[in-house]
Structure formats: C-alpha cells, structure tokens
Design a protein that fits this description.
4-stranded antiparallel β-sheet, about 120 residues, mainly beta, globular
Amino acid sequence: QVQVMESGGGSVQAGGSLKLSCQVVGDRERSCKLGWFRQAPGKDRELVSSISGDGTTFYIDSVKGRFILSRTADRNTIYLQMNSLKAEDTAVYFCAAEGFKGFRGCRWDFWGQGTQVTVSS
C-alpha cells in the first residue's frame, strides 16, 4: 500500500514564504506523477503543481513564478516552496500520488491528510 505523508504548512503574513514536504512510501509506478492540490473553503479542490516521472513540472497560472516544486533523486519526496504568498493562497494543501491503472494509465489515487496554509493580509 502507498502512504503519503505531508509536513510543513502553517500561518504567515502576505509576502512571506512556506515550504511543504511530502514523502511517498510504498510500491508505486514512478513514471506516474506526484503533486500538490489545495482546497479553499467553499471551493473545489484544484491541482496546484505536479511533477511527472521524467521531471516535467506543471503549475497553475496563479502560482507561476511564486511556487517551486522539486523532488529528491529517488523520486519519493517532493517539496513545494511557496514564495510571495497571498491571502488567496489560503487553503488546505494535499499531497497526492498517481497510481498506475493499467490501460487507463495513471490516476490520482493516493492522498495525504492535508496541511493548512493560512496567509494573512
């Protein structure tokens, strides 16, 4: 079974920085993605950033230039460095890992418990 364990988060003033960490333990297809989602009160969960097995990264437009996703060489741990934080970044952040589903490819299948990020203006 795959386990996803997050750390980091907290409260910061606008313009500040936080770093989230996520370790994925267990047998999984490493060509599938790891990523960070977030969910603000009253809003749908959204994909913030992801990294594929070959290292290709994705960022939603609202965090481009502010957030940096990186990972360890073994591809089991990822980090989200969040800079120039804004009040609208306030949300619960979830780390997730894709699982390989055969002919359906990779799907977001494994989730962490979430960590709160609060940015005060």
